[in-house]
Design brief:
This protein is of the alpha/beta class. It has 2 domains: 111 residues, Cobalt-precorrin-4 Transmethylase, domain 1 (3-Layer(aba) Sandwich), CATH 3.40.1010; 118 residues, Methyltransferase, Cobalt-precorrin-4 Transmethylase, Domain 2. Helix content is 26%, strand content 23%. It has 8 helices and 12 strands. The strands form 3 sheets. Strands 3-2-6-1-7 form a 5-stranded parallel beta sheet, with helices on both faces. A 5-stranded mixed beta sheet has the order 8-9-12-10-11. A two-stranded antiparallel sheet has the order 4-5. Helix 3 packs across helix 4. It starts with 11 loop residues before the first strand and ends in a 13-residue tail after the last strand.
Amino acid sequence: MRDANTSTGQGFVSIVGAGPGPADLMTLRALDRLQRAEVVVHDRLIAPEVLDLIPQSAQRVYVGKAVGNHAVPQEGIHTLLVEHAQLGKRVVRLKGGDPFVFGRGGEEVQALQAAGIAFEVVPGVTAASGCSASAGIPLTHRDMAGSCVFLPGHLADDNATHDWAALARPGQTRVFYMGVQRLPHIAQQLISHGLAPDTPAAIVRDGTRATQTVIACSLTRLVELAPAYGPQPGLLIIGETVQLSPDYQAV
């Protein structure tokens, strides 16, 4: 990591993926950047054990988001990053999962580029790979799934531009981030476009954490069993590989 430029007063921003939960799923580079930070701008779902790694001397800025409740608008986050860097600070933008997988890291990069701020992006374990591995669900499999697609579940509404016919085709694993709330609609769209109703599907909540829960069964049954939408992060996985999970119930 390049240090803040003392001759120009310009700082440096590290956009860091913290992974899906436990601190030991962070990369060594992420840990290094966090421990050297002077300012940490962090999201809502960062695990307490990860936040405990922030130096006591560092300023913490909470910018967490939940459905209908954003502590700071995205444009305000851009402003915070730029302003702290312009003060010559080593800034860490700490994000759950991976910054470039539904993390809006690309937008933050654009804002930093526009302001002429030096930056780097530190990748993290994204929820899809972390939660699926923890639940025993391969994202790809030689005999079951030759491809995998990541989708934003909260955009699965009537105005979304998903190619449902393509998503309903066999031989792929579909992963919907934050897809629990829209599960009935997602299931209806996939089935109406040709996906078998008994296709294995799973909801993984608090994936990779000690509080992880997994519900795995047929897609139609999952719609009946799905928990009410709440503050716990949930990942929706639909595809044949779900049946390999030890939690899968063929009902």
